[in-house]
Amino acid sequence: MRAATLISRVQAGIGVTVLSEVSRSLMPPDLALLPLHPQASRRLVPTGPRALPWHPAVRTLADSALDHLAAAGAMPGAHAG
Predict the structure, then answer these.
(1) Model's pTM, two decimal places?
(2) Once rounded to an integer, what is the mean pLDDT over residues 8-27?
(3) What is the C-alpha separation between 55 and 22, in angstroms, rounded?
(4) How far apart are CA 21 and CA 18, in angstroms?
(5) Which of 18, 34, 62, 68 could bridge to 46 as Cys pair (CB 3.0-4.6 Å)?
(6) Per residue in 8-44, is it b (16+ CB within 10 Å) or e — as a string?
(7) Rounded-to-integer distance, Cα 56 and Cα 65, Å
(8) How far is C-alpha 51 from the chain's CA centre?
(9) What span, in angstroms and rounded, lies between the C-alpha atoms of 69 and 76?
(10) What are phi and psi of 21, to 5 degrees?
(11) Is the bond preceding residue 38 a cis peptide, omega within 30 degrees?
(12) pLDDT tens by residue, 22-69
C-alpha cells in the first residue's frame, strides 16, 4: 500500500501506520510522527537474479552502498564487485 494511502487513512481517523523517518516530508501539518521506543531497526539487502546481470542502475547502487559501508568500517572486507 502506498504511503500516501496509509497517511490519508490515519488523517481520516480510520487507521494507524508505522512509517520511517524518511516519510516526514509527506506528513500533513495535522499529523505527527512519534518515535518508537525501543527503536526498531532493519537490515536492507539488495537482491537480484543469480544467473543474470543486474540492471546497471541497481549494480551502481549496490556498489555505492558497499563502498560507503566499507569506508565507514561497518563491513570489514566489504568491496563492490
Answers:
(1) 0.45
(2) 88
(3) 25
(4) 10
(5) 62
(6) eebeeeeeeeeeeeeeeeeeeeeeeeeeeeeeeeeee
(7) 14
(8) 26
(9) 9
(10) -60, -25
(11) yes
(12) 888 888 999 988 888 887 777 777 777 889 988 898 889 888 988 988
